Amino acid sequence: MTNRYDRYQRLSFDRPHPRVLRITIRSPLKMGAMDSILHREVSEIWHDVDTDESVSAVIITGEGKTFSAGGDLNHERKVCDDYRLRMEVMAEARKLVTGMLDCRKPIVSAARGWAVGAGLACVILADVSIAAKDAKFSDGHLKIGVAAGDHATIIWPLLCGMAKAKYFLMTAEAFTGEEAERMNLISLAVPDEEVEERAVAVATRLAESAPAAVRWTKLMLNHWTKAALPIFDASLALEFIGFGGPEGKEGIDAFLQKREPQFDQDNVA
Question: Other CB atoms closer than 10 Å to residue 32's CB: what's the count?
Answer without folding.
Answer: 26
